[in-house]
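Ticket #4471: complex job returned nothing on first submit. Input attached below:
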Amino acid sequence: MPRYRQHRRLLAITAVLISTAGSVAACGGGGGGSGDGTVTLTFWTHTHPPMIELNKKLIAEYEARNPKVKIEYQTIPNTEFGTKMLTSLSTGSGPDIINMDDNALRGEYIPKNLLAPVDPAGFGKKSAADLEAGYVPGTLDGAKDAGGTLYGVPSEFNGTAFAINTKHFQDAGLDPEQPPKTWQEVIDKGKALNKAGHKQAFNFLYLHSGWYSQWFQTLANQTGGAILSPDGKSPALGTPGTKQALDLWVELARTSGIADPKTSSRDATVPFQDLASGTQSMAIVYPWAMEQIRQSNPDTYKDLAVVPLPQVNPAKPVSRVYGYFWAVNKASEHQAESWRFISYLAGQHDRWLSDVSFVQPVTGWQDSAPAKKIPGIDVIAQAYAEGRYDQVGPHWSEVQDTLRKAVDEAVFDGRPVDAVLNEADEAVRRSLS
Amino acid sequence: MTVRSRLVGWALFLVVAAGGIAFAAVLAYAVVSALKPPGEVLSVPLRWWPSQVDWHNFALPFLETPFARYYTNSVFVGVVVTLLNVLTCTLAGYSFSKFSYPGRNVAFVIVLATLMVPLEVIYVPLYSLVYDLGWVNSFAGLIVPAGTSAFGIFLMRQSIDAVPDELLEAARLDGAGVLVSLGRIVVPLVRGPMAALALFIFMMNWDSHLWPLLVASDDEHRTLPVGLAAMQANNLGAAGVPMMMAAAVLAMAPTVLLFLSLQRRFVEGVAMSAGIR
Amino acid sequence: MTVTTTTPTTRRPSPPGRRRPRVSGRNVLGAMLSMPALALFALFAIYPGLRVFYLSLFDYSLTSPPEFVGLDNFTFLAGDPRFHEALLHSLVYTVGTYLPALALALVLAVALSRRMRGAGWVRLLYFLPVATSWVAISVVWRLVLHPDGLLNQTFGLDVDWLTSSAAATWALVIMGIWKETGFFLILYLAGLSRLPGEVYEAAQMDGAGAWQSFWRITFPLLKPITAICSVMGVIRGLQAFSPQVVLTDGAFGTEVVNLFVYKTAFENARMGRASAVAVFMFLVLIAVTMLQLRAFRREDG
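Support reply: We reran it on our side without changes. The output follows.
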């Protein structure tokens, strides 16, 4: 009877499915050590292709030298990194090694006690102070708690610089040797560039809220504004310096008309696309961005010059720095091994410079051979000296969302700066309470 | 039929056909964009046709990313989840429809109520459960929690309700067991809804992004939507746009093909459950 | 009469709910058949669902143990402008997308149910968007909605679809209608193919115009389908999440409730508050669904 066979087939399928599920399940999981003493370390970073490539190389080298260590490397898009981290940490597990920006470190992970303090032994040092002595003073502050305990070492340390397209400058009859020193000059030169047919003279990048807040802090550092009060307990978005920062943004992006913010790329797919493709004449840049452009658009790259960040007050230049740090999960069962691996990564600072243009601020880095090869490195080194880490606080991504909303409404919808900042101030107050 | 009503019918049809072309234009735009050389995708004025057809863009995702791997993973997970759903939902629908036992209606209502809780919050407790089961970074974590669906049970119950009790009664008198009746009488009559269910489940699974990201986003188990998002984040320069388009078009292909192959049965299937009350 | 013959299954539908008592042994076996599904449900849907209800009474940051706070999460939400805006955005998106989508689907179904050469192809054109996935299609739509994209250039518009509070909501609505109409078209076509053809033809012989025969005959007969469609529309609309994530990430007045839930839980680590929103939306959906079903039943009666 075919029908009875059908019924038997149904049962057979069930059995197969259940056993498949079971056997597949058995393949998964399996974290940490195994019988032969092999240690598996999981390592998560955000996505940045040149960085991923070097990480893979370094992992292969490390595994070759340490046959008992296996590194499981996973990359997660920036916008999803926090989600993925939080969920995996909620079970009291998660990756062993994380590469994370200083905002997240100081805003969330350190205060919530999720990370292990740096283990100097992993670096062959006696104490954290010994380890710190190898870095430019102040550069590790991005990974410290209020008491000064260090929770990570920098994988990249970024100062803010400015890039101009020298060819566009020549087209407009401007001297590329005289880059804009103030934001007012950016507007003036922008108008000249517009006349020469370069309609996108200067634009900010409007990607996810993290990008909004980094531009905001860059400007606010110069205008003397702040997001939070000095004690971090209340919002400070209504203060004159903060208003001045957003006013400046609106003027640069909207009222001056030197570029159309609406055509600026909005997805993190191609952050500096407009600069790289030779459409945009001026942009705020970081060392890694220049390297990315060198690889993707060599033709444009040769026309770009890295110059100091324009200022509100050129007599007292202020910049913004940020860093990513390798850190170890407090729940990791292999902390010592993790730090040893990080020590290997951190020891390759010359390659991070030459391959990815990631600066690791070890003492004397700017005099190393690969640093000398990076154009404009003196500008970047200078920016570090004038740089300041961001202010952060609890529930920082909520605050960043609030900032994004305020900027969007002021820049794109044209709402008055006072009104959007008052609303934002109220929203941040709710976030902090 | 009057001339007037026929004319109205034709006019309506023409408008509808024009609308259909407008709907499909978006997809055509995607396909054409995928064939363009970099830089032509967003040109002013708009140009529909590429200056030169660049089929190479369709190869790029495979050459530059583990696209084949993502694809295989998605197909594997999709097929197993779909089979599991068809099986569990048909059995449950049959049970809820043709048998009476205490708790039956309560169970059915609770199943339906789960449709009303936003998935995004469910994922947090679900993740810790799956973690405890040791299924993080495994296909089991992707497959087993998706093994049944409230919508599917609802669909199958409604469909099996329409199977006349007399047929089952007759089979019972012939000595057919519960499962034999299911295989011999019910299943042949609800093939349509089963096909519809299969399509819906496959589509939903194919589109699922957040759960796979949370539970299994290592290279070995990464599915297509997670892979696409990562590709988006990884691609540099204008050169990446046509490649992303090609990837997007390739990612649509299986659902479109499945849809085409099941279309007939599918329309029939939904009617069975929905039309008959 | 040609169009709408019925399959054997539908000829004698048994009245649901009223069934003869059966031998209990059979029923035990029958009950067992629901076990695989129910076991999966209990473990992977009901248990986490109950957990969400429980967590709505706690302050829970995901990485430290939950702290009981009673109804604090609910009182916070009652006074939270961001949540209120999200509710409003969800409401606008639901009405803006699903009302036109349903109406369009109904009209399309009527036009396409006629036996006409090419109708199958046109149907396919409307079906295609349903078969695409949000993640893949967002890449395409971002190009369509770009200031220099397909939409603006084709119609000579200068709308900032994705970069203004005035237009972003409608950009999502347009995309939503595009993607969702086919889903309801399927349901309506299925319903139409079940209508007894004689009724239709008789009406036309009476001289009832196409318009009148639609309102007097077709539409009332489609009421059960319309009921299902409107319930599904509300559920899909109020639970919208993917289109907003992939296209705007909630900027420019498009942060809908489920996106707010997602951000609250995962980005801001306030799982308790996110759970409270979920509980609230659960109750809203149950209430709206019951109201809808009751309204349709009363009209029927």
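Chain B has a mean pLDDT of 84. Closing as resolved unless it happens again.
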